[in-house]
Each structure stands twice: as structure tokens, then as C-alpha cells.
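Hi there, hope your week has been kind to you so far. Do you reckon you could talk me through the fold, stretch by stretch? Thanks so much in advance, here it is.
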Amino acid sequence: MLQRIVETLTQNPGMVQKLQAGELNLVGISESEKTAILDVFQTEGQKERKQGMVYWK
């Protein structure tokens, strides 16, 4: 499930912004998992995000 969430967030950068702003809740994800996901998406630029995605595949 966590992998699918990361894939969805990678494909929808607007959702990442909402998650960072606290406007999006991830049902079934703990606070520590949410923090880890946000850490992955802290880097700017689509190229860097794709490199971060390698970890999740």
C-alpha cells in the first residue's frame, strides 16, 4: 500500500503540496510513515523525485 501511495504522489505533485500543507490525509498511514514520505518528496524538481522513486520500486 505504501508503494502505491508514493507512486500516486509522484504522478500528482499537487497532492504532495496538499500533504505538506496538511490538506491531505493518508488513511492507514502512521505519522512516522507520513514523515518518511514527505522526506522523500522534499527535494525539488521532477528529475530528483524520479531518482528518489528508485528506492520504492
